[in-house]
Specification:
By secondary structure, the protein is an all-alpha fold. The chain contains 7 helices and no strands.
Amino acid sequence: KEEILDTLFLERWDVMLAAIAEADASKRLPREKLHAIASFIIESYRHDPELMKVIIVEVTRAVNTFGRTHLAKIRDAYAQIAKIVARAQADGLFRSEITPEFAALAFYGSIEQVLTAWIFERVPVGDEELERAKTLIVETICRGLERSGGVVAAISD
């Protein structure tokens, strides 16, 4: 079982790390980069909810066993997201009172909690709810990070 979980996790996590790097390398605004990341994760759930359930329930929440083994990989995702926030802070788009590391944890944690709720409710989630979640997660985090009067870009995907 551990070997199968390892393989599933590593394959999906590497794909997610690549998606984060791709979003970060784009010329988009930080808010749009975060939206692309949230979209990737939520689309992964839409595509294969059972696989996402395994990754979230069996892997990332199993900190004492599996999670600890892959902690460096998990932290890599947070670090990449934190870099997006740090650059936005350096550019004056995001407030500096909130550390990039905390913002990354809050952003990813919000996504994980939404997915966890869907997983445990065992109710099919419709397209409208999936799309709305992408925007609400980004709005929740970015409105807390953006300077007042900052750039608020329309999210178009």
